[in-house]
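Researcher: Quick one. two chains, 628 residues in total.
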Amino acid sequence: MTPILDVRNLAVRFGPTLAVRNASFTVQKGETHCIVGESGCGKSVTALAIMNLLARNARRDAQAIRFNGQDMLAYSDRQMEDVRGNRMAMIFQEPMTSLNPSFTIGSQMIEVLRRHHATTRHEAEQRAIALMQRVGITAPHMRLGQYPHQLSGGLRQRVMIAMALMCDPELLIADEPTTALDVTVQAQILRLLAELKQELGLGILLITHDLGIVARVADHVSVMYAGEVIESGRTAQLFANPAHPYTRGLIDCVPVPGKIRPGEALGSIPGTVPVMKDGFSGCAFRFRCPQASEVCTQAVPRHALGSDHIVHCHLAPSQGAGQ
Amino acid sequence: MTQFIFRRALLALSVVLTVMAMAFVLTRLSGDLAISIAGPGSTQADVEVIRKAYGLDRPVLVQFFDWTRLALTGDFGNSFFFKDKVSTLIAQRMPVTFTLGFAGLALALMISLPLGIIAALYENTWIDRTALLLVMVGQAMPSFWLGLILMIVFGLQLGWLPISGTGSWQHFVMPAIVLAFTAVPALTRLMRSGMIDALGSDYIRTARAKGLSRSSIIFKHALRNAAIPVVSIAAVQLGFMLGGSIVIETVFALHGVGYLAWESISKNDFPVVQAVVLVLASIYIGLTLVSDILNALLDPRLRGA
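Model:
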């Protein structure tokens, strides 16, 4: 089956800085693909690069970014505009500021449908009301005439989701959609996304730094480090058998109830994500890796550990494949 | 919204009352009015006669309440110099000042809004820098000097425009340009920084993610938010232009309210001075009120405040 989204060797650079390097992954219909990693590892830039919404000083290179088999790299700005918000929608981390404060919820929702499809205002309103109901917004009629500042953060994120669904997209890119929300609202939003995926056969690309979220909602995971996808696989497989030392480190950082004793320190990975410049070679994690050795300065090999599980590490096969 | 307007109006009224007191006190502080009116070479007896005739011998508070009472009904007394009712004088001069003010503001907006938007769209390029340079030159140029230069070039050398008087619309061209020049720098900067803020905001990223066209993103989503401070400053600028056109009206001999103020101050015609100060201040206050209301209409977040 052709994946909805197929990203091949994506690279994004800001001047001499490489924000994303040969990142490759696919999103299937009706599947949630999570990209997980620390702050500054290039997750959000990857999402914006797919939408072609990068800042003017960014340069995007890729072998291909295929959307339903069509390479979007060849698209003109105009063609890209027709895809965005229509067949491919996006929601963001900051629900408080992502809606325009000067326009009503209704006008912002209706606008996107009328931009891409010939519908009457009344039809668009009806669809907005139906979708608001679907995403769990109470009194949708009243919300149409309200302004963003009259809504809570959770409600605004629901509005963003409803707005993203206006044109019935095939792919939803969600960039840390629950980071700014409190835990109960977070759980509700994640459940909603999972339901929508089932109901609408939506492909979801979910960007997060939270492995707890990954474990709960992802079908597939790609772990990013310093702009690279260093390990990817089915969620269950990857959590059971993390092959990359970084993935293992991340999993160790998650406190598991019942396993932590008082007074015992939580796992952590010392150091921060390095900034990648041109001419860098070898493994970017070697400066923080407990198992790093001489070999890690050489070009990193790619190992397949089963049908879907892929890891980029010199040390992986002997440790990962054997388990 | 009604409550908002009511509260702002009440505030405006109290400012008007304060201005009345200030205008009254300041004219009295400038010296003994009876002596000034009598003029040099007059005898003590003349001064006493004038003092009686104009009621200046009464206690100051009585004079103030008397003036206030009449002023609130629109009666500002008679001018000493023009032998006319002050209200008639101001009503005659008002159209000139209003024409000049509105022409100046319209011209200022026509220049500064596009300039600010273009500078913001091409932020940090040579286009932006050129716009900022023009704005800085405009800010540094004194308006009376610009007025004189325009007069010499277009009035005297080229002979395209009349240099003084109020006979036709051509008479207003140069004064309006000079007046607009004083407002362009502030409005351009405000428009530019507002647009830069708006274009970098999260809701513009959302608008782009929705696949909206570039023109809809710039002119609907960004401009709507960036225009809020510009609108309120423009209203205040208009007040400034109506009240502060004294220099320009004098330079171009336009017989507006500003010119009247200058004439009456130089002739110690204090009923006119008091009235002009009050009228101009009231216009200014009224426009500030209008600006607050416009702001609330444009920004839904302010409507509750």
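The radius of gyration of chain A is 21 Å.
Researcher: Thanks, that's what I needed.
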